[in-house]
Amino acid sequence: MAASVGVLSILGLGVAGFGLAAAQDAPPPMVQPAVATTPNALSAGVAAVVNDEVISTYDLGQRVRLLLVTTGVRATNQNMPQIEQEALSSLVDEHLEVQEIRRQEKEQKFDILASDAEVNDNLARIAQSNNSTTDKLLQALASAGVGAQTLKDQLRAQISWAHWIQGRYGGSRLRIGEDQVNEVLRQIQTQAAQPQYQIGEIFIDAGRAGGEDAAINGATQLAAQLQQGAPFSAVARQFSAASTAANGGDAGWLSLREMRPEIRTVVDQLRPGQLSAPIVVDNGVYIILLRAKRSGAGEEMISLKQAAISLSSDAPEASVVAAQQKLLALKAKITGCDTMEPQAAKLEGVVAGDLGEANIKDLRPSFRDAAEKLEVNQVSDPIRTEAGLHLIAVCGKRRSGASIPSRSDIEGKLEDDQLALIQKRYLRDLKNSATIETR
Domains of the chain, with CATH numbers? Predict the structure, then answer.
């Protein structure tokens, strides 16, 4: 999890950005992490020191457990080094953020750090979104060895940092020009004619992971966990260094042209619902989930139903004529798509069903020629194929492609992108000026 993004996922639910949002995946199971027994707070050693502030091995062990519980990832000998590194990096980031907030509180002379009431309110909303209560949520975490304070400390840091960044840089302080909105709108309109891919992404930053080899190994371990059922959105929130981590890795609908070349090549080969193998890029490793795919704008999509009588290609002419008469009689009784199957069910030897939606240009020529002439809820005359005789009913026609977002939606997205970049740079500067020692 990139701490600067300000996201927490609990049982598949998360505090995303500055409000509470539900994850798209099913809640991950509450698992007992397979980690060594964590020492109590009194006997804990030192895991790191951040500007003279200690992160104990107890704190680290608790964060490892919390990370495992919230993602559904199962600890193994292979993935524990990556999990511990991610947990420690998150703790270091949060200590830097809280230290900066306390410094700003002294300078600004007003409270910024989230109060106990704010933390408890967020806990209650997370629990409510899981059809539970705060007490039951904390009991479930406790059963996995996670103390309530561990969760509350993480929440407090994330809420406070998000409030500080929004308060200092958000709103009217961000300058989104008309030319920026116009350029994004132009790109969207241009790309709308191309196939669109709904992408989920997890990005393992090589610098954060400890080098390219560590990033590749970490991504390989995560991909294996995802294949075994770990929820993609929860894993993205905790492990991804991309700005989309706040949305469970959801990058939205993209054309191939909008993707990095390394990703473009892989995505074009994926089927909807399929997960990629780790994709190495110059600064890290991606795991891509292709959620869905749609044709570019301008393509005519058509929904069809059919009623058919099976006939071999060499069937006697008398059989063909009899089948045609039966289907013509059926056509007269069909008043629309909703009545095709019930009416066909009354006739022996007639099979009816939904053909789904397809690009009209992908239909066989005889079906395409008939469908192009029909309006919605109209039925064709019998069509002869090598398999038999068919009636087709047009149940819907539409032009494919995404709707164009409003200018205000585009402006809001640009503002979110700017804030995410500001947070990343701010935290980078804090790290560069800090004294950080890991043990």
Answer: 3-294+406-438 (3.10.50.40), 300-399 (3.10.50.40)
